[in-house]
Structures are given as C-alpha cells and as structure tokens.
Amino acid sequence: MSLLFKHFRIHQIFGANTDVGKTILTTALVRATGPFQDADDEHIRRHCGAPQDKVHTDCLYRFHVPVSPHLAAQIAAGGEADKIVPDDTFLNSISSYVRRSASRVSGPAHMYLETAGGVHSPTLSGVTQLECYRPLFLPTILVGDSRLGGISATISAYESLLLRGYIIDAILLFRDQYYRNSEFLMPYFAERGIEVTAVDAPPPKAVDAAENLASTERYYESLNLLPVVQNLDMRHQQRLAELDSMPRRSIDTLWWPFVQHGLVKSEKDVTVIDSASSDFFSVYNAQNAGRSVSSLEAQFDGSASWWTQALGHAHPALTLAAARASGRYGHVMFPQATHAPALLLAERLLHDGPGKDWASRVFFSDDGSTAMEVALKMALRAFSVREQLEGTERKALGVLGIKGSYHGDTIGAMDACAEEGVFTCEWHNAKGYWFDPPTVSIQEGCAIVTLPPALAAVAAKDDYRMNTTNSMSWVYDLTGRLDSPLAQVYREYISHTLDGLEHSGGPRLAALVLEPLVMGSGGMIFVDPLFQRILVDVVRERDPAPSKLTGDWRGLPVIYDEVFVGLYRLGMQSTIPFLGAAPDISVHAKILTGGLVPLAVTLASDSIFRAFHSTEKAEALLHGHSYTAHPLGCEVANEALKLIEKEVRSEPWATAKARWDLDGTPSVMWSLWDPRFVRALSCLENVTEVMALGTVLSIKVNDVQAGYISQSAQTLLQSIRIHDHDTESFASGGVPQFSVHFRTLGNVAYFMTSLNTAPETIRTAEDKIWKALEIKCLAE
Amino acid sequence: MSLLFKHFRIHQIFGANTDVGKTILTTALVRATGPFQDADDEHIRRHCGAPQDKVHTDCLYRFHVPVSPHLAAQIAAGGEADKIVPDDTFLNSISSYVRRSASRVSGPAHMYLETAGGVHSPTLSGVTQLECYRPLFLPTILVGDSRLGGISATISAYESLLLRGYIIDAILLFRDQYYRNSEFLMPYFAERGIEVTAVDAPPPKAVDAAENLASTERYYESLNLLPVVQNLDMRHQQRLAELDSMPRRSIDTLWWPFVQHGLVKSEKDVTVIDSASSDFFSVYNAQNAGRSVSSLEAQFDGSASWWTQALGHAHPALTLAAARASGRYGHVMFPQATHAPALLLAERLLHDGPGKDWASRVFFSDDGSTAMEVALKMALRAFSVREQLEGTERKALGVLGIKGSYHGDTIGAMDACAEEGVFTCEWHNAKGYWFDPPTVSIQEGCAIVTLPPALAAVAAKDDYRMNTTNSMSWVYDLTGRLDSPLAQVYREYISHTLDGLEHSGGPRLAALVLEPLVMGSGGMIFVDPLFQRILVDVVRERDPAPSKLTGDWRGLPVIYDEVFVGLYRLGMQSTIPFLGAAPDISVHAKILTGGLVPLAVTLASDSIFRAFHSTEKAEALLHGHSYTAHPLGCEVANEALKLIEKEVRSEPWATAKARWDLDGTPSVMWSLWDPRFVRALSCLENVTEVMALGTVLSIKVNDVQAGYISQSAQTLLQSIRIHDHDTESFASGGVPQFSVHFRTLGNVAYFMTSLNTAPETIRTAEDKIWKALEIKCLAE
C-alpha cells in the first residue's frame, strides 16, 4: 500500500510531542512549497499564502474534544465501540484520498499529511499513529520539541520512527533562545544524516483577531523554508533515482542464489523491494513513473518470503526484541558461557516446543544447512561409538533417506541427499541409500496415494484412493492406517530392501534422515506419512534392545529435518503428531526467528549427547560458528515463538480447522486455505494435482516437461503478478489492492501464508489464483 | 561496571519527559520503601517520612540554571570546555558512590538514582543520559507523562530505553482525569510485561510555605506505593535467582560448541553474561552474593568475542541500524530481488572495500563456513569449466593449501583442510595437498622466520632472523624480500613440489586456498607472508596465458579466506597490501557486521562469475540460504563498515602506528599493542614466542605438550581472570576496574581488541598480562 508518485511529492508530518508547532510549520512549508495540496486545518488554508484554488486542505476525521484521538473517537462514538473507525478503514480512506489527489494533477505537486499529537499518540482505534500509518510508508518530517525536555522528546520520537523503518527526510523545530535545543540537535542529527532546521517561534497571540491575523501573516512572511523544501524535493528525486537505478546496479554487482544470471534479460526481471509490512512487499514499478498511479505496488508475499515468515514482515514486536538484545548484549562468545535469551530459548524448545518429551539438548548454529551438518555429525558419531568403528570405517558411513530430499547447500548436507536433478556440485558425494517414496495428492477432489514402480509391483496396484467426504484427511489418520494392507506392503518392502542393502557392499547406513511429510525444495513432494512412519518403525525394530554404550536410541539415529515443515508451517508445532513417532535428532530454522534473522537449532536426545561426553576434549562435538546463539537471534526467536503460540490459538485458526473437519472429526490435516477451493482447483483441467497442509498450497500443473527447470507453472499463473490499478483508489475495507508474488519449482506452483495472514487476504489470493487458472482452462 | 548487590536494591529513575514528577514519585517510593538510601534532592529529604539517619540523599552534581544539564554545565564552566566533567569521570563517581554506599550497609537496603530531565536529555558532556548511564546497567523505573501527548512521550521513552537493553521494572505516572493516559498505557505495557501504576497528582502549590509543607505531607500520606515497592523487590529477587540458576540450567540444556561437557565440572565453570557494553562483559559472580561487592563484574572481552568485535558490544549505532532495517523490511526473499541495504553493501565491498580493483560480484551467505563452501563451489566449477572436465573427474578434484588451515566446520569447508589435530569428524575427507609453512615470530626481541624440515633442508638452515631496530617489520616488507635467497628457496621448493604432485596420482588440484598471514584456529600460526606470496605467484606463473573459456584467472583460482584476518583485524582492510597480490575469490564474515549478527560474503572476480553464466538454469550457482542477504544484517554491516572507516583514521590508530615505525619507515606491520610490551614479553623465560599484528596479540608459552588440548596457557595466565574488588569503589578516571576474559589454543594464549578499544584499556590489559607472566617467571 506504500505510496510514491513521481510528480506528486508527499511528506507525512509527525510531532515529537503534541503542541510543538506541527500546523504552523506545515503551513510554512506549504507557503514555501508553492501551489498545491495539503491536509488538515483551517489555519493552513488561511495562511498558506497562495490562491485558494491552488491549495487544498482537507481534514478527513475531525473531533471536537482536545484529547488524544482514541479518546475523542470514543467520546464521539458515545460508547458504541463499533462506531469507531477501524484502522484499516481509516488508512484506506487516507490512501484513497491520496491516490485520487495524485490522479487529479498532472504537473509537479506536493502534499503534506499532518498527523495528530506525537508519534505514538493513539489513533481512533487505539493503535499508535506510527504503527497505523506504517503501511503507507510515507517519507517523514519530524517536528521537534523546542521546550525544556524537548531534546529528549525529539530524539526518542526519532528512534520510535526509526524502529518502524520510516525514512526521515527533515527535522524542523522552533528556535528557543533559552533552551537552545536546536543547537544540540543539529550536530546530533547531522551525524545521523538528517538536517535539522530551526525556525523562529510565532509571535504571542494578540487579543484582537485582526491584529492576530496580521501578525501571524507577518510571521509567515518572515520565515524562509525554501531551503527545506528544496531539500525535500531533492530527497524525493534521489529516492526515485535510487529506485530507478537499483535493477541495473544489482544486475552488475550481485550474485544471486539459485539464479542463472544468463536468464536475467533486463532490469524488468529484477524485483526492487522498497519496504515490506505484514504480508506485503512494496515493490517498485518503473513503468508507473509517468502515470498517475503509485510507483510502489503492494505484492502479496505468496512464498512466505522463502518459507521464513510466520508473523509478517517488519513485525514491531520482533524489531523491539532485536533492539532489546542488541542494546543489552551485542555479541556473546558462547562456548561454556550462557546468556538469558539463549537459555530461555533452549528451555522453551525442550519443554514446550518441538523437543518436548524426547530431546534434552539444544545446539545452536546459523541456518538449516549448518544445523543439518551438526545433526549428521551427531548421528554418525553416535553410530560409530555404538558400533566401535575405526577411523576408516567411520569415513565410509552412509545415510538412509528418501529420494527428493533436500537438506541445504553445504557439502555435508548435500551428501545426505541422493544425487539427482540439478542440486549437485563438484564435491557432492551422495553417501547412502534413498527410497522412491509413495506420494499423496488431491486429484479431482479425492485424496490419492501414488506408489512408485517398485512399491506398485509389490502392492500389485498403482495407487490407493479414498472417495468419502473426509477423504482428504484420511491419509493423515495414521492410527487408522497402521494395520492397513498398504502398511504391510510398506513394511515388507522396506525390510526386504534393508536386508538387501546389508549385503550389497554399499556404504554402511548410520542414520535415517527424513524431511517429514513434505520434501519442499525437491518439488513440494507430499510423502505418504504412513511410509515415513513405517520406515522409522522398521529401522528401530531391527535393533531390539538399546545399546549399553549409547543409551536408548535404536537401529539408527533418526533425524527429522523440520527446517521447512516444523513450527506450524504445516499447521502443527512439529511433525511428531502426524507421524506418531519422535526422532533422536531434529533440526529447526526458518520460522524460528519469525523470519527476521538467521538462526538454527539442532535438538538431540540425551543418548545422542552422551556419545560425545567424556573427559577428552578431542571427543567433543568440535563444531561452532562465531555467532552461535547470537543474543539478537535468540531474543527474536523467543518473541516469535511466544507470539506464534498466541496466533495458533486464535479465532482464524479455529475457523480454518473447523472448515476442514468435513465429517466432524478433527484431523491433523487442515489448512488456512479453504478446502472447497482446494477441491475445486484439483478438478481443473490444467491442474494435475493439488495439496494443502497448514499454510502451504501446492498446485502441480499439466506439463509434459516437468522438473526443476520447467517454466510451465510460472507461465500459467503469470497474470496474478500484475497489479490492477483500476480499482485501487476506491478500495474500501481492510484488504489493500495487491498482486501476488509466488515461487515455482518447475511445474509446481506453491503458495504459502504467514501464520497470521488475514483470512480476507487469503480469500482474495484464492480468488486471484482461481481466476487465473479457470480462465486459462477456458482458453485452452 | 554493572552494579548488582544482593542486599542493596538499586533502581534508576528515568523520566519520559522533564517535569513529569520524577522527584515526587521518587520521594513517594522512598517513603514506601522504608529505610535507606536515595539520591538527589532537598524535596526527598524533607518528605521521605523516615528518621533522617535512615535516609540519605545526595546530589553529586548540582547546577543552578534550570536548563538541560549539558547547557548548565557549559554555563557553569564559563566557556572553558575542559572544566566540564567527562562522561567516564561522571560515571565513575556515581559508580564509586554506589559501591561505597553498598559496602556501608549490611542488612537489606535500597537506593533510587534519579536522573535529570528525559531519557535522552544530555548529560554534562553532551552524551544523552541513557547512553551515559548504560555501563552501570541499573534496572529502571520510567516515570510516564500524564499530560496531553504523554502517551506518545512515554512509549517513545520506553523504546529508547529498550534500544539500550535496559531492564524496565515499573512505569509510574500521575493520574489525570481528563487525558486518562494511564488507562491507555496500562494494557499497552501489560502486554509488554511491565506494570503501570497511576498515582494521584500532588495538590496545587499553596502560597503559604507552612500550608504547602502540610498539604504536601498529606498528599504523600495519601499515596500507597507499597505494591510497587513489593514488585520492585520481587523483580530484584527474581533477577538474582535467575542469575543464580543459569549455570545449572545451562549445563542441563545447552550443547556448547567446541566444549567437552565432561570437562564442565560445576556451575563455576559456566560464564554467565548478564549484559555487555563496549569492550566489557558484565559477568555474574555468585561468590559475591554474600559480600558487599557487586555480583556483576566487568570482564574485558579479550578475545573480541570470538574474533567478531570491531566497535564493542551493544554499540547504539548498530542497534539502531538493526532496528531500522527490521522496521522497514523484515525479511526479503533474495533471488532476483534487490533491496537497498544489500545493494549498498555489495557496492561498498566492491568499490571501497576488500574487493576493490579485482572483484566484480558479491554472493551473500550466513557465516564464514557457508561462505567458504560457496568459494569452493565457485573455484571448482571455474576450474572444471576451463579444463572441460566430466562429472567423475570433477568429483575427484582437490585443493592446494597450507597445513594448519581452518575454514569452518561444515564438511565442504573441512574437506579443504588437511586432516590433522582434533578438527575432524566422520565425513571429513580431506581433498588436496597442504604445505608445511614457514612461520614468523618474535623471540627475544627479534623477528624470526622458522622453516619446516623440508624447507630447512633446501635452505640448509633452520631459520632466518633479523636483529636491526625494525626487525619486527622486516618480514612484512615483501618488496624488500622478493629477491632474497629465501624467496628463491621458496620458489624452487614450491615448483618442485607441484611438479611432483602432478605425477603423484593424488587428486587433481583445482584451487589454491589460503588464510593469508595468520591461521587462527590452527593455533594463531603466523605464516611467512613471503611464502604465501610466492605460492600465489608460482601457481599463476605455471599457466602463462588466461584461458579463453574462463577469462583472466591463471593457474588455479586463488581463494583468500579473510574471515578472521580481514576487515582491519590485522590492521589493514584486507590482506592484499601485505601479500601484494589479489585473489580471484575472497571470503569475509565476523567483523563484517561489527560483531552483531551472522552474515558473510564471498567476493568473486568477473572471470569466476562467467564460469556459471549461461542460459541453462542447471549451470547456475545453485546455492542459497533462506536468510541470504537479510536486510538487518546488511544494514548493520553498512553501518559497521562506515564507523570502522572512521575509526581507522582516528588518533589512537595514528599513535599506535607511529609507535611501530621504529626506524621512521611506515610498515604494514603494526599493532594496537605496544611494541615495547611485545618485545619485553618475547624475552620472558616462560614465553617461547610472541606475535602482534593489528588487534591481535599471540603468546606461545613453554610447554612440552603443545597442541589444541594443552592447558598450559590457561594455567599460566589464570590470575588475570580474577576480579580485584579492593580498589574498585575508589576507581577514578576513565578505565573501570576489570578482569580479563581470554581464550587459548593449547599452549597459545591470544588477546584481541576491538578496533576502537580505548588505549588506556589496552595498557591496563598489558599490565595485567605482564604481571601474570612476570610473576610466574620469578616463581619458576
């Protein structure tokens, strides 16, 4: 919803406090700016010093009791809470007003949007102003406080703005000969790149109205804010020039992850992200520069920003958590040291988090890939210690897994994956054996388990399907399926394969490594959970009694890579309730910090930990990264997990879950996406299959040339990336006009929400997806 | 310098603005708290309602002009700037006062330290109050503003405190029936875990002094702040209990990096870090709980927090940068996208940073280890493309390096290192050849190049030494040494070895991987830079013309791992000026973010980049991490690099450099450590050798059992870890009383400063090291 018009410079005016002279300085700015547009007050209209038809002022909401806006609104509403204008309506009306104004002028024009009170004064609904206005992301002028205490007020207000990412283009305040705040503030803010301008204070109010008008007019005439206005104009131009130049400069200097630069044809192929808030990126569109529409467009972050988002972008509570830890600690060197954020996070993960009831230790690292390296080091060592292997035998160990797995891009994590597709490199040396998995999908409204050839041969059929009302949750009802004929097929096949591997001369298997339920990077492959559960069971059953040497893990150490699937991404805190079996080691990242900064953890059971425990330094887990358990990341994670637990108990989650209880039985399978929409999609002609679980929606489109390099899903859904400006300036209610940013994995398009994405936003996204696919269906 | 006494609860009182009632509410708190101690004002003394001998008030600095303290101080100083009390003196006088007070009482007592004006009101010197008091890290009571605009002022003040990590235990403000700020603030702060208490405002001032006294007394009698005081007492107890329990809880849940848990004997072996600021950790010492000394002790961060610190802990500018980016973006999904912090950082690194004049691309990742994996993937691919290798040939490639190298703990980074010492694991498969390096050290005041046996055999001598005045900088003067006989020895030996390797049947070498100058984790091994330079030269000279297929790199792609040694850690922005040769790929992390959050970059020349450039997606560098180029990290890095460039041009750097110009010739070899101290150390009996470069000081102690698991350096220097409380309460001047936290690598103890560590702090640390070693010398 951010607003930026080339021909129409807008600045928002915040006060460091109430009664600091916002209206007077706004008036002075309008006079210095010359013709056009402004908002708020009679005073401005009277003193703007320009022909009335060249200057417009408007006050969109006016209250007559001089108290904080939230109180004024309460008083005006006479105690009826639903008469108070909600924040999003308030914001949309401002946004629409600005858009309409921008579309009415063709030449250069300006607008000053004066806010009420101080930066954190409550709005009508009670949210504070700088939070409420944040989605508009207007560059800001801060009016400082020239009174005693005003230095403090001005700096604090600046910091509050900065905590919300605001661009602050200028600070204005009255000159006070006694307190001389401006003298202190000028160098203070110069060091921070902001120009402070001090202006003479207005004359005392005269008793006589005419004299008052005249003296006020003389006062305005004496001021010269032209340099300030020129500076604002320059900043506006610089910002546009910067945004314009960013694609070219990025193409020339960045080396993007996973991007073939040879396919980046022009500047248009680069997404310039100017800011983000909640579920929306604010994306620069150079095409709009010559038009009367905003150059910044709202784009729904349809991939949850590479699967990291849980609470939306720029969540103030996460920013404050980051600031708090940074301000208290900076860095803490972690070996044999402790600090509250890390300890509390470890305890939370073990006692109330995904490690509950099985894990006893938390090892910190920086990302999913490093945390998987740690997990592998743990598992291989535990196995080696139990089996009392020698050095060379240890080097030859392999892992058991599933084809299509992805555990990150460092070589160790890669080596735990089969070499297939494009995810390989010179030193990738896949070590182990990987099963072709049976997969789950919804096709024509019906849940289907599709068997790979080897399993199909054993089962003597290609797939299993269920046509009852609750068919979609059937596959996730493991208690109902553990004794099914298919379970027996899986059991026999896995046992038989493992028997064969033991005599094959391949690497000795030392760990079972799974991405439970969904192999994300492998192409959003939904693996039959029954297969994974039986895999765990069979591996453990082959080793009847725990070893005395290493405690209670059996068979192979089992690693769950929950980097993508954990922490409610699929609707549950961990995948353990789906599979009904806990791992010995699990790995978590992405959502862990609510999508703000890198941090990862590897959880381990006590028996795994004991494999490293001795009095020999050389037998310790000699792994670490400089920023291990960095306080900022841990504090943000604590805050994120706290907010997430609140979110998952919220009304929208209850409603969404209820919608998926198709036969009245609650299931672990549910989604924020509407089941009717999912079912309908699965019936479209150009859609092969669909799946939805938790926040994830995956759509596989018809394409003979499937695989990672296919462009078919991109092509089919391209239209939803395009912003529709036509209806925008008249938008009402809560949902802004937006296009949809999404990612594809070959012929699979996937969409992912945050845990707190508004239901209306999801419904709108569903409509857009539906229209794009349905129209394509009709056209073909 | 943080203060925390079990028997003596201290709270600092900050105001959301000036004139909000701090003194009145402090008085009320003192009355409710009962006997003891307080600071500031006549008003408190008069109305505290307790026997005079039970309550003390003091005002340490008093000015008579009611303006901001910095102005009052200026006025009192009569324009003589040096008469204004500097911040550290100011702070030390408060700290000493508090310590003396704490030592005078034995039973439970309390102190309220009332500050002046608002949170950001300037102190005497002009630094704002919350910055100035931050090292004391006292828990805080915020007095809110009950007037119009006071909601905003209170929240902003809270946020400013939070940006400095302050613990805020309570908010107090007057009840105002008209503006009702407290009604808004109570739920607002309840959500943030802080109790807001509203108190009746004092009666209007009576004209008659006696009547005034009486009405004020009645007013105080009517207040009941006992619940607030009880809450403060509870928070104090909770904080102590938390600190007390942290070691045990950490031992029970954390899995520390590089730590053998079997060697962690008791709670005392765990360092509890309560906060940190500039170069000091504030460490909890449970032993002090029953004594009249602070339970928190200042410990000089002598390892620069695992080699990450550049500007000190909790630097406000870095916190604000983190907050700014978090508030503006949160996360940005990076493939084919761009945002200002990442782009500006890339441009800075390429145009004014370590990539200047040779690199054209920046690839972002999360830590040194992942960035090295990226570097290796780049180099191996570039080599494979030029040599047109097939799949199996590509897997068999190796690297050329130096023994003792360390590039991180992910398997790929490990595989680029020789398998030696303890840094190994099950999947470590060292691929390549590593030279035994000649090393550099200072022994008995004289610089020595020590040759390993193979080189000594060629040279027919074991070492080279120089006894002139500038002997210490001699080894780093490569232009003077390139034509020396030793250079010829190196050249022949390297050529001969490489010839041999080509016919050895070992892995084909595809990259030269170096930690220039110092191999840190390998044991602070200072490699003779001449050897590394000639290694680069020989490798390149063996390949006379650049390949048409891959542009202008020659021989092997050369990787500089500058994670530890770069970004001024050794006194220069990069190691290129030392070696006189640029790499094709370089890796940077640690200092990159000023020691706040994980972020790493791999820089590459255009010819390396071109090896991946095509129209085939599968040929791209398919590597990435979810938080690649996270805006918070990039913004912090931009801020850190900006501040660092200022720092390296500062007076302390110029002074330190001049001190090392022993014969008047500026050298690339210089250090923040004093050369006389370094030389003297090298002459001690129990010291084998010493080296200093930039911020690093390395001391190898005599030990027959050297190596990573040796404890000799730990034992020898143990005494400097102990805090000396005796002189503390009478400390004056700028340097607080501190002990020294340091790390060892076997028989090597090393010390590392930030780039901006105060010279006085370094001198004090030198004294402590000197005393510890000298006394041990005498004792032996």
From TrEMBL, chains A, B:
In Gene Ontology terms, what is a biological process of this protein? Answer: biotin biosynthetic process
Keyword Transferase applies? yes
What Gene Ontology molecular-function terms does this entry list? adenosylmethionine-8-amino-7-oxononanoate transaminase activity; dethiobiotin synthase activity; pyridoxal phosphate binding
Which residue ranges traverse the bilayer?
none
- State the compartments where it is located: Mitochondrion
The organism is Mycena alexandri
Q: Which InterPro entries match?
A: Aminotrans_3 (IPR005814), Aminotrans_3_PPA_site (IPR049704), P-loop_NTPase (IPR027417), PyrdxlP-dep_Trfase (IPR015424), PyrdxlP-dep_Trfase_major (IPR015421)
SUPFAM superfamilies documented for this protein: P-loop containing nucleoside triphosphate hydrolases, PLP-dependent transferases
User: What are the annotated GO cellular component locations?
Assistant: mitochondrion
Question: Which PANTHER family does its entry note?
Answer: ADENOSYLMETHIONINE-8-AMINO-7-OXONONANOATE AMINOTRANSFERASE
| Metal-binding is among the record's keywords | no
Query: Per its record, how is this protein called by name?
Result: PLP-dependent transferase
UniProt KW keywords: Aminotransferase, Transferase
